[in-house]
Amino acid sequence: MKTDVFFLKRQQAIIIFLGFCILFSCKSNTDKEEPHFSSKKRIVYNTEAMEILGPDTLSSGWNTIEYVNSSNETHFIVFEKYPEGKSVVDTKAEVFPVFDKGMTLINEGNTTAGYKAFDSLPSWYFDVIITGGVGLTAPQSSSKSTIKLDPGTYLLECYVKMPNGKFHSVMGMYKEVVVTTEKSLEKEPIPTVTLEISNEKGIVNTGEVTPGQHIIKVDFLDQKLHEHFLGHDVHLVKLEANARVDSLAAWMNWTSSTGLTTPVPNGVIFMGGVEEMPSGNAGFFYANFTPGSYAFIAEVPAPERKGMLKRFTVNNK
Ligand SMILES: [Cu+2]
């Protein structure tokens, strides 16, 4: 168990690092109505080129994060909580060089030596915890998620890949954010649809999706390391007539040369979701449904085999 946890942390560290090595661009766009919240404060992060722009600090507790993707790429924002006293400064000094060396070896085909290089990572880096975030969001659109944050220092990033294979985070799509001890005014949202995600049953939808606005809760009944060294999450996609679900499923694996690389598969429009969080936690996201074909899907290898690709249809009332 301990080994698994260590391995998971290491792989998370790898992913996080990939988001940092070099520099580039990501984005988002504007939003819709601000319904169902007690909070008066609107929290918006956006992307104009290949970066994350927005508040440097957030209150602790429930936060509704709106992601405005003004770019021509699909992006997400994942929140990674740093151990106390550590920040992106420490990452640049102690982590980036190690990942740079390891990834270079792996990219050269020397996988064993590459993973061996990660043994030089500082011990604190294995305490980074992925704590949710806003799911994949199509170009020129926006999405919104509500997540619970503890005080601390966080790294926000997107590791979708550019057509040339470079991670967005490596190109500059990351941001350090401090969550203060000041409590947010927000309350936990009341969902209209609840999804459960687990290794045993995949994604299970316990509510009917009807046309109109919905608040979707994602209950993480468990969490585990998948083949791509990360845990599971939930994204919403709209499937147009020309969409191929097998292409979408294959795309959700960043370790393949074409996986998680833009452009996204034809006919697939990402509408947000909730990024990975530890077992026992829950997050919320918001979507306005029109009649059509959709799917809930996790960003993991072989999501259909794991029950983590659930198609559904929204019918006219
Ligand atoms: Cu991105």
Write structural notes for this entry.
The protein is an alpha+beta fold and 317 residues long. The protein has one domain (1-317). It has four helices and 15 strands. Helix 2 runs antiparallel to helix 3 (111-117). It is globular, with a radius of gyration of 18 Å. The chain binds copper (II) ion. The site of copper (II) ion has 7 residues, from loops. Copper (II) ion binds next to loops.
Chain-wise SSE layout:
Elements: H1 2-18, E1 43-47, E2 57-69, E3 75-81, H2 88-107, H3 111-117, E4 129-137, E5 141-149, E6 152-157, E7 174-183, E8 193-198, E9 202-205, E10 212-220, E11 234-239, H4 245-251, E12 268-274, E13 282-289, E14 292-297, E15 309-314
Parallel strand pairs: 1-2, 2-7, 8-10
Antiparallel strand pairs: 2-5, 3-4, 3-6, 4-12, 5-13, 6-7, 8-9, 10-13, 11-12, 11-14, 14-15
Bound molecules: copper (II) ion (CU).
Total strand count, please? 15
- Cα(first) to Cα(last) distance is 49 Å
- Backbone CA Rg: 18 Å
Please give the largest β-sheet: 15 strands, mixed
Summarize the structure.
By secondary structure, the chain is an alpha+beta fold.
Key attributes of the depicted protein:
alpha+beta, single chain, globular, 317 residues, 15 strands, binds copper (II) ion
